[in-house]
């Protein structure tokens, strides 16, 4: 895998889980890495951690300005920040739907819009959107989450058509069930039900998502754009 070692990468929601693993992998790959968290604390060692709320454009702009001032122009953006608020359709209020979409989908839009200015000037950019197998596979009780994650595909493909000629790529990584704090607390019976639906017969590891993101950020993936890459052990079968 090749890339210029002076490139700056920003990972939103990079203080825990998949986002943290992505940040750590990018650090290992030689990038100067910044992560956002709501508190501005808790990022991995070796990363600049800045405060940002992706539901607030001014907060996003301030975070970018801080990273640019301390590390330089941002060439790689990983839109990872996300939330869930699961419930069945008939119990889901409009706010329950809108709040998840505002963070997961509109939040990604805010981040990408701010990042695009610098990428256009540099005639280089890597945008990686962290979606979910649920976005195209569906899941009961997750209409808000699935809608927000499916929307990221439309963003990536539209961005590719708009900016693909400027050295900017935009791709989606769609994780399946991954070993995180969220899956660890599931009852054993529930875990076994999930495992039965995964052809690989195991949950994924955060490192497997991180390495996929690192490849998409690298020069080796310069001709890959508008793609949806499932990292799900075969669960979604390319959906």
Summarize the structure.
The chain is α/β, with parallel strands linked by helices and 239 residues long. Helices cover 44% and strands 16% of the residues. α1 (17-28) links the parallel β1 (8-11) and β2 (32-37).
Characterise the protein shown here:
Strand 4 (74-79), helix 3 (94-122) and strand 5 form a beta-alpha-beta unit. The model has no long low-confidence stretch (mean pLDDT 95). The protein contains 8 helices and 7 strands. With 239 residues, it is α/β, with parallel strands linked by helices. It starts with 7 loop residues before the first strand and ends in an 8-residue tail after the last strand. A 7-stranded parallel beta sheet has the order 3-2-1-4-5-6-7, with helices on both faces. It has a single domain, classed as NAD(P)-binding Rossmann-like Domain (Rossmann fold). The radius of gyration is 17 Å and the shape is globular. Helix 1 crosses helix 8 (206-217), helix 2 runs parallel beside helix 3 and helix 3 (94-122) runs parallel beside helix 5.
CATH class: Alpha Beta
Helix residue percentage = 40-55%
Mean pLDDT across all residues, rounded?
Answer: 95
Which oligomeric form is depicted? single chain
Largest sheet: 7 strands, parallel
What is the first-to-last residue Cα distance?
27 Å
Rg, Å, rounded: 17 Å
Give the name of the CATH architecture.
Answer: 3-Layer(aba) Sandwich
């Amino acid at each position: 895998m090749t890339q210029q070692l002076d490139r700056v990468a920003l990972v939103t929601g990079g203080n825990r889980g998949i986002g943290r693993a992505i940040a750590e992998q990018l650090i290992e790959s030689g990038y100067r890495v910044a992560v956002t968290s709501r508190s501005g604390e808790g990022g991995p060692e070796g990363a600049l951690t800045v405060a940002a709320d992706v539901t607030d454009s001014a907060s996003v702009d301030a975070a970018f300005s801080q990273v640019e001032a301390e590390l330089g122009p941002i060439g790689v953006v990983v839109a990872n920040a996300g939330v869930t608020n699961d419930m069945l359709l008939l119990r889901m209020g409009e706010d329950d739907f809108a709040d998840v979409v505002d963070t997961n989908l509109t939040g990604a839009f805010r981040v990408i819009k701010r990042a695009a200015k610098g990428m256009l000037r540099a005639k280089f950019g890597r945008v990686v959107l962290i979606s979910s197998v649920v976005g195209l596979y569906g899941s009961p009780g997750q209409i808000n989450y699935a809608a927000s994650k499916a929307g990221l595909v439309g963003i990536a493909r539209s961005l590719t058509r708009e900016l693909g000629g400027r050295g900017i790529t935009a791709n989606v990584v769609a994780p399946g069930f991954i070993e995180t704090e969220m899956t660890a607390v599931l009852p054993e019976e529930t875990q076994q039900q999930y495992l039965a639906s995964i052809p690989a017969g195991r949950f994924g590891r955060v490192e497997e998502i991180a390495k996929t993101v690192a490849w998409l950020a690298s020069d080796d993936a310069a001709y890959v754009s508008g793609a949806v890459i499932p990292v799900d052990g075969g669960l979604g079968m390319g959906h």
